[in-house]
Specification:
The longest helix is centred in the last third of the chain and has 16 residues. The protein contains eight helices and twelve strands. It has a six-stranded mixed β-sheet, with helices on both faces. A four-stranded antiparallel β-sheet has the order 2-1-4-5, with helices on one face. The protein is globular and about 55 Å long. By secondary structure, it is an alpha/beta fold. The chain has a domain of 169 residues: Rossmann fold, CATH 3.40.50. Bound molecules: adenosine-5'-diphosphate (ADP) and magnesium ion. Magnesium ion (MG) binds next to helix 1. The site of magnesium ion has 2 residues, from helix 1.
């Protein structure tokens, strides 16, 4: 269902010593929705992402997945629950093939002797990786090609394809279009829309406001750790969004 809340942060705060990085932040992510998470440097975006993805524990507040209160002791817990996070550094391994990268850390093993020893099932991984990338609408031909041969945009597409292959609930993309050209950025935005069409929730962090205005359904603005705006994207103009982010609204 399109209006179903899949993931929610309720009153989440995080302090580092005397610094309040996040101050009672609320965030609801619906299925089939792309949320733009924006704010100036130091606003608390990365801290919120790290809490949502299990890399940080909140100092206070709760996380609810499908309405159930959850606690992640590590990023592996959140991954297990269907939440994929693509950090700014995509973590691809350039020397491996595209399909090996999609399966990095989750390799399919062929059952070996007595089911104990396993060999990597490259064939099955290649087929499944291609399916995953195709499903994501990513046209990267030749899954056996080494990632080092790909352009920046194609690498980012593979990283997002990997996230989409595994995500069952939510994808969090931290600055996925940074350092990409216009056409490559457009590809990444397109892939995000495909993820949304497949029923996932997407959180898109970017400083490139035209991308945020173009690709998202709702925009959440953080300033000094607080959520200061949360409204449909259609209610913002480039000018009004910039004013909310910088705190110059109403001037
Ligand atoms: N590990 C940390 N230790 C101390 N302070 C931190 C840490 N992580 C973030 N902060 C502080 O928390 C605030 C929010 O940072 P961050 O979440 O990285 O913001 P953003 O991603 O929006 O730029 C900043 O003042 C930052 O210096
Ligand atoms: Mg950050």
């Amino acid at each position: 269902m399109a209006d179903e809340v899949i993931y929610e942060a309720r009153g989440v705060s995080k302090t580092f010593g005397s610094v309040t990085a996040l101050d009672a932040a609320d965030l609801k992510v619906h299925a089939c929705e792309i949320i733009g998470l924006v704010g100036d440097n130091g606003a608390g975006k990365s801290t919120l992402v790290k809490i949502l993805s299990g890399a940080h524990q909140p100092t206070s507040g709760t996380l609810l997945l499908d309405g159930q209160e959850r606690r992640w002791d590590s990023p592996a817990d959140a991954l297990e629950a269907g939440i994929e996070t693509l950090y700014q550094d995509s973590g691809l391994c350039p020397d491996l093939s595209i399909s090996a990268n999609v399966y990095l850390g989750r390799e399919i093993l062929r059952p070996g002797l007595l089911g104990k020893l396993g060999l990597l099932d490259h064939k099955q991984m290649a087929v499944k990786a291609r399916e995953g990338l195709e499903q994501a609408g990513i046209g990267v031909a030749g899954g056996s090609r080494s990632v080092s041969k790909l352009s920046g945009g194609q690498r980012q597409a593979v990283a997002i394809g990997r996230a989409i292959t595994w995500a069952r609930k939510l994808i969090i993309l931290d600055e996925p279009t940074n350092h990409l050209g216009a056409r490559q950025s457009a590809e990444v935005l397109h892939v995000m829309k495909r993820a949304k069409e497949q029923g996932l929730g997407v959180i898109f962090i970017s400083h490139t406001l035209p991308h945020v205005l173009e690709a998202t359904d709702r925009i959440v603005v953080l300033r000094l750790g607080k959520v200061i705006a949360d409204a449909p994207t259609s209610t913002f103009t480039p000018d009004s969004l910039l004013k909310v982010i910088t705190g110059l609204a109403g001037t």
